[in-house]
Design goal:
The chain has 464 residues and is α+β, with helices and mostly antiparallel strands. 40% of the residues lie in helices and 19% in strands. It starts with a helix and ends in an 8-residue tail after the last helix.
Length: 464
């Protein structure tokens, strides 16, 4: 496909892209759309009565996106919601172009392509180990779209297709491959994956496009399980403690499988300054945050002071971490009232952050702070907690403490012992949440603000 061919699709893509959950440019006009690479996964022939499938990498406002497009002469009624547009010019004139990941016939073809390692134009397909791929896939798209798009194949496998892609290996592939080689049982190993080789900037770095992993039927994510426990008035602390143990085992596996580093005193001070800078920007955007700004700065100031007193021999250890850990990233099977074993998923980190930052070693306290914040969110959303703020706070505190205690059982060190570091990371996370909720879900703003009030209080020395 040439640039001229893309021009016939351009107006349709320009209307369609801003409405996609994973598109970063929502709410502003597209400044430009250009073709990075195009590959025919299944050539389309007019009059043949069969669909075609085109893989595109397009650049929009400086970001590169992966698109998988289906092409048909006539779109079946069940695929009507997936329609992107009907070009009136170019080689696709008169066809229906649509989201291919909604078409079981095309997602089945994609699985078959993953089954055999090799290349097709700029695309490279790889297999992991000797695990078998499902033979009768019965593909269906995952309904809960987030920053990526996923397809489930029967009860055997799930394919995650990354939407906004950058040069370099995605941490979700890099870390799960490393943990699979290390034999970690708490993370699904990659079965297959595909990449785009090289890039138009000439760096030569491939872009990770998608990962196929085992699907875990019969599991629920920790968010759903926590809300079910709240609704039933059940004790969730055993599950929280088990989740702390799982997190510690995964952290240990990552530290053993990949290089580690440390933050020296000056680096800690710079980290504290960046956190303070994010607070200043959030306060400027969200007036409700301003009354607490001085108290929140104390958390970052304490981290900077900690850095100024650190020698290299007492530097803060850093390693590869999950990067976006919360209850929704943990899958568990119910055993009694709550799961006693967990699996962690989605290791790509926060998708909005640059890839280089997501791949950088960081203190494990960042992951731990993310999970502590997630317990607060669950407590405020649970049906049993909604009418009773005191119960909500008590439930969150009990599960935060249980999680940290479980972590300590494996690592031999309670993360609450590094109170300054943990408080700084939790404060930074809560500030991010305030800005996010103010922009996207104003009705939820009270959830992070309740944590902000706690973290800004002078007596707030321990996040849990």
């Amino acid at each position: 496909m040439s640039d001229s061919s893309l021009m016939s699709l351009g107006p349709h893509l320009a209307r369609w892209l801003p409405h996609q959950r994973w598109f970063a440019g929502k709410g502003r006009p597209l400044a430009g759309l250009s073709l990075v690479a195009a590959t025919e996964l299944l050539p389309y022939s007019a009059g043949a009565g069969k669909p075609g499938m085109i893989h595109l990498l397009v650049r929009v406002d400086g970001d590169c996106y992966q698109l998988l497009l289906g092409v048909r002469e006539v779109l079946p009624p069940e695929l009507a919601p997936a329609l992107i547009g009907r070009p009136t010019t170019g080689p696709l004139r008169g066809t229906a172009v649509y989201e291919a990941l909604c078409d079981p016939r095309l997602t089945g073809l994609l699985l078959e392509r993953l089954r055999t390692p090799g290349t097709l134009g700029p695309l490279r397909f790889s297999r992991g180990g000797h695990a078998a791929l499902p033979r009768e896939p019965r593909p269906r798209p995952l309904e809960a779209e987030q920053s990526n798009s996923s397809v489930i194949y029967g009860n055997a496998a799930i394919l995650k297709c990354f939407r906004r892609v950058e040069p370099g290996i995605n941490p979700d592939l890099e870390l799960t491959l490393a943990l699979a080689r290390h034999g970690c049982p708490h993370v699904p190993p990659p079965l297959a994956w595909f990449e785009a080789s090289g890039d138009e900037g000439g760096s030569g770095d491939s872009r990770t496009l998608g990962i196929l992993q085992p699907y875990l039927p019969g599991t629920r994510d920790g968010w759903q399980l926590a809300l079910r426990a709240l609704a039933a008035g059940a004790d969730f602390t055993p599950a929280a403690r088990a989740l702390g143990r799982t997190t510690a085992r995964v952290h240990t596996g990552l530290a053993e499988a990949l290089p580690t580093s440390a933050l020296t005193g000056s680096q800690l001070e710079r980290t504290a300054n960046r956190m303070a800078g994010r607070l200043a920007k959030a306060s400027a955007a969200v007036p409700a945050l301003r009354p607490y700004e001085a108290g929140l700065r104390d958390a970052f100031r304490a981290l900077a002071v900690l850095g100024s007193h650190r020698t290299h021999s007492r530097a803060v250890p850093t390693q590869r971490i999950h990067g976006d850990l919360h209850l929704g990233q943990a899958l568990g099977r119910e055993s009694g009232n709550a799961p006693d074993t967990w699996t962690l998923i989605d290791f790509e980190g926060e998708p909005a952050r640059p890839l280089a930052e997501r791949r950088a070693p960081q203190p494990v306290e960042r992951d731990i702070a993310g999970m502590l914040r997630s317990f607060d969110y669950a407590a405020c959303q649970g049906p049993a907690a909604a009418p009773d703020a005191a119960f909500s706070a008590e439930w969150a505190a009990a599960n935060r403490a249980a999680y940290c205690a479980g972590y300590a059982e494996v690592c031999g060190r309670d993360p609450r012992e590094d109170a300054v570091l943990l408080r700084a990371y939790e404060t930074d996370k809560a500030v991010y949440e305030v800005l996010y909720e103010a922009r996207n879900r104003p009705a939820w703003l009270g959830v992070p603000l309740s944590a902000i009030r706690r973290l800004a209080a002078p007596s707030s020395s321990s996040p849990a």
